[in-house]
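Page 47, continued from p. 46.
Same chain as before, 355 aa.
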Amino acid sequence: MKSERILVTGGAGFIGCNLVNRLLSEGHEVTILDNLSRSGCEQNLMWLAQTHGPQSFGLVEAGITDFPALLGAARGKQRIYHLAGQVAVTTSVSDPRTDFEANALGTFNVLEAARQAGEDPIFLYASTNKVYGGMEDVRIIEGRDRYRYEDLPFGISEEQPLDFHSPYGCSKGAGDQYTRDYARIYGLRTAVVRQSCIYGYRQFGIEDQGWVAWFMIAALKGLPISIYGNGKQVRDVLFIEDLLDGYDAIVRNIDSAAGQIYNLGGGPSNTISVWTEFGPLLEELIGRRIPVLTGDWRPGDQPVYISDIRKARRDLGWCPRVSVREGITRLYEWMKDNLELFRHLEAQAAEAVAD
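Result:
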């Protein structure tokens, strides 16, 4: 494969560092732009440096609201993966301005940098299924252990009407539509990836984002897990390696994929309920019962979300390969082997609060 010059915004985060690791392994010249604000970013950069060498990638320590820094990083790049942003619905509700600046203005900045970069770069935007909103018109049936769609055996397709709920949904949705429109208006080779629950190595989950990893971390530490609602809520989950395979498929097929929107999620074959099914699997892995705290349903929490991924299969030849059980087992083994890293991050966070 020919080496290319690539920019990854948010490249020190969970998805970003896994992507950068793959790109470096393929021999590409990678620049990371990241403000390093999230827990674990510095450890991810250290891991990349240890794996590939300290000079193996470039780092621009800046946020995507810093347009001059962003434009400088984007110049001459042949691909831009835009993964940076504010990631939690709860944070968007408590601080909507910062959420807007990161996700709406930030994505606009990255698109403008790509447009002015001078290389007609391929541009991938990591969007979210939250742009579909609450989908109150979709009929849902409650079973013994899980919810399911009554009329959508393949899940929610890209044709589902957009209905932005929460400041997070609005800001990510704005970026989603800007990215699509830059292909139509400016001919930029953009693609929107509406991602479901992504999980995998180097995911330092928090309670309101990255729930699979968060539950595992809590269980390994012996902490109780909080379940909101009855635990029957169903999500399709996608292992990190399958997501990156989807990115690769878009790049390979960019002549036809430009201007398109793709759901990249686990699909109907890779679903699990938040606790009635995930709980027993986690207890099986850890070898003991896990204490659980229950609370009321959170506003806007969907009883079920499953992506219809047939468009990606048809257009890109892509489909998930890692099953739910295999992926969760892989992540659990990695977390168990790296528990000291999580304790170190927790201690760092406590010190920061004390200071």
